[in-house]
Design brief:
With 292 residues, the chain is mainly α. The chain is 75% helix and 1% strand.
Length: 292
Amino acid sequence: MNKNNLSRKYAIWGWIFVTPAALLIFIMSFYPMIQAFIISLQTGMPGNLRFAGMRNYVRIFQDDLLWKAVGNVFTYLIIQVPIMLILALILASVLNMKSLKGKTFFRTMIFLPCAMALFSAALIFRSFFAVDGMVNSFLIRIGVVNTPVLFLTDPFWVKVVIILIITWRWAGYNTIFYLAGMQSIDESIYESARIDGASSTQQFFYLTVPLLRPIILLTLIMSTNGTLQLFDETITISPNGLPAVISISQYVYNLFFRQSPQLGYASAVSYIILIMVAILAFIQIKIGDRKQ
């Protein structure tokens, strides 16, 4: 068999193996996206949809509650994501220390919140921060406050609670990525730095962080994507969708299931999430490439 025939045979078998997965991705991902875009150009009740052009997209710019949800999500994104990723880096550095005993136990404990269902985690925090919850009881007992703090209804404190939930839930997840990256770094690099007199802090900022830049970029994109699609935490803390806490995904859910079904407008709002995720991911990748 000559080289050309062998290459053709490999190409044919390659397509045979790739095609089922490609079809599955198209059916489960791209087809629904195309269908959602078609629906976003329509209006009316389910079963009686009619073409509306760009009317739903024009409505987006006049929807105050939607932009309030966008503001909430970007508040979580700007405050929570940096805190979570920095905390994950610190935890990974501690877990990577050779002198640390019981590493397996601590790694399991840090990753354990990720194994818990999002709804369950949010429900636990909701009970902790309720008017008669553990946090208020403790604050009153030690004399910090005289009356219970309205953690779940106050516009400021409810955001703090959600940020705590997301950080607690996902910090361990990102820690595993960073820990795996740290363990793949050649020890000889650190030995050379120590010989040159670099302290542990200098090694962390000038060696570990730059070498982990691709992983940090990956976790940043995933965290951004997850935050923009935030749903379980906000709907558990505020089932009725308070303007101070509602997320874009929760707003879409309300349009679909809690109000008179507005399929076209809900699909248009969903595409706003897709566009924001794509734009932010593109910016982050470009910035990451420029720094490298």
